[in-house]
TrEMBL record:
InterPro entries: OMP_Chaperone_SurA, PPIase_dom_sf, PPIase_PpiC, PPIase_PpiC_CS, Trigger_fact/SurA_dom_sf. Signal peptide: none annotated. The keyword Magnesium does not apply. It comes from Hymenobacter roseosalivarius DSM 11622. Keywords: Isomerase, Rotamase, Signal. Residues 338-357 are annotated as: Disordered. This is Periplasmic chaperone for outer membrane proteins SurA. The keyword Signal applies. Residues 188-288, 291-401 form the PpiC domain. Pfam families: Rotamase, SurA_N_3. Transmembrane segments: none annotated.
Length: 462
């Protein structure tokens, strides 16, 4: 690992991006312990006011780095680098508490949903993820919530410290000139790929049929049949159907607005009218209110899309593609205005590399479903609309755009300016973070286990 990339590694730790790395590590990035027969004895290695760092915190991230290195040797001081970043994170948390820095519940929920969707996509289904951890999705989210909240607070503090830092072209050139020629990274083939996705919209007739079926179920419950039994028989929510539709306790703003609004209008035991949300149609029963939380059960029906619905999405994308090819609109503008994929629409439709958040995708690690399509494409070409299924199982159509195809090469300013500029910016931000650490470390009590006292940054804290 050259210094060019080591400067970026610390920012990755601070931003929490390691939590969405390769799942082949065994889902350690999920931040939730998988049940095992025997637990390793843990220990506190750093105390920082009310914050602590456990040996397992360090070792978990270190093992992720080992896996990411794919057999290549890591720098001898990598554990110190990791520990320094963890301690910096803890100091930011301590200062955030003093300065009353908070993040909104909606932001925490959104990040939880994003991460959980990623892991569901990687492992194949919600059921497989629950089987792996022997916990329902809701409990996994509950376990992960404090960690996500801490990371979002750290990000907010980091933004206040180094968010306004920029680099000039001159600084980028100076940064690149300091890298020894024999240490320049060698890039394998990388591509930039854009996509525009249109979901198949369920037609009105199918929606009405689902509503009618759910109203019949509602009438059966009102006539005395058991809600839980009918939920197990009819509900299409894999996370709650087996539990008779039970979702457990939630706070306000943790569920989709339509569901929450309907649930909070009910009295315990009362049934809601049919409620439509992005997930389908719900029949809700309020179970209990407890302080600021409430528990419910529901029966969910998901109206299925048909061939005509998918065809309509294809027609829309064909029109968009025609406009792009005629230079009436850029792909980036069309993605922003038309695409239903929130993950890429704001990025000009470009698919990001989950490892470093860049737009460059190593060809040997790209999604096979994309690889076999772009393998024969020319740069600048756009595919016709193709069937696509989203991570959460929605039928859709998409078009793919091959923006660039960069052959293997050693890093240079002409071809890799964006990457080098990002590394230069990371180095400058790291310096700003170091200066902040030195300035604020005296405001908190820090005690380091003697085993780690030799770490460069940490040996100056006592």
């Amino acid at each position: 690992m050259t210094q060019l990339f080591r400067t970026a590694a610390r920012v990755a730790l601070l931003s929490g991006s390691l939590l969405v790395g390769a799942v082949s590590v065994g889902f350690a990035q999920l931040g939730v312990a998988r049940p095992v027969g025997r637990q390793t004895v843990d220990a506190i290695i750093v105390k920082l006011d009310n914050q602590i760092v456990l040996r397992s915190d360090l070792e978990n991230i270190y093992q992720q780095e080992v896996a990411r290195a794919e057999g290549k040797p890591l720098p001898p001081d990598v554990k110190c680098q990791i520990l320094e970043s963890i301690v910096l994170n803890k100091l930011m948390l301590a200062k955030a508490e003093v300065d009353s820095v908070v993040v909104e519940d909606d932001q925490v929920k959104g990040e939880l949903d994003r991460r959980m969707a990623y892991f569901v996509q990687q492992i194949g289904s919600e059921q497989k993820l629950e089987e792996y951890y022997k916990k329902p999705i809701k409990q996994l989210k509950d376990d992960l919530r404090p960690q996500v909240k801490e990371q979002l607070i750290q990000q907010k503090m980091q933004e206040e410290i180094s968010g306004k830092v920029t680099v000039t072209p001159r600084e980028v050139r100076q940064f690149f000139s300091r890298i020894p020629k024999d240490s320049l990274p060698y890039y394998s083939t990388e591509v930039e790929v854009g996509q525009i996705i249109k979901f198949a919209q369920v037609n009105q007739k199918v929606k009405q049929e689902a509503q009618a079926k759910l109203n019949d179920i509602r009438a059966r419950i009102q006539a005395g049949e058991d809600f839980e039994k009918l939920a197990k028989e009819f509900s299409q929510d894999p996370g709650s159907a087996a539990q008779g539709g039970y979702l457990g306790f939630f706070k306000r703003r943790e569920l989709v607005p339509e569901y929450e609004a309907a649930a909070l209008r009910l009295e315990p035991g009362q049934l809601s009218p049919i409620v439509e949300s992005q997930f389908g149609f719900h029949l809700i029963q309020l179970i209990e209110r407890k302080g600021e939380t409430f528990s419910t059960r529901h029966i969910l029906l998901k109206p299925a899309t048909g061939t005509s619905d998918v065809s309509e999405a294809a027609v829309q994308l064909s029109k968009v593609r025609k406009r792009i090819l005629a230079d009436s609109v850029t792909f980036a503008k069309a993605a922003k205005d038309v695409s239903d994929d929130k993950n890429t629409s704001g990025n000009g439709g470009l698919i990001q590399n989950p490892q470093d958040r860049s737009n460059y995708l190593p060809l040997d690690k790209i999604d096979p479903a994309i690889f076999f399509i772009i393998d024969t494409m020319k740069v600048g070409s756009i595919t016709p609309p193709m069937p696509y299924r989203t991570d959460d199982g929605k039928d859709a159509m998409r078009i793919l755009w091959l923006k660039s195809n960069n052959p293997p090469h050693q890093a240079n300013l002409q071809d890799d300016y964006q990457k080098i500029a990002a590394a230069a910016l990371n180095e400058k931000k790291n310096k700003a973070l170091d200066e902040w650490f030195k300035k604020n470390r005296g405001d908190v009590y820090i005690e380091v286990d003697p085993q780690y006292a030799g770490c460069k940054l940490l040996n100056t804290v006592n």
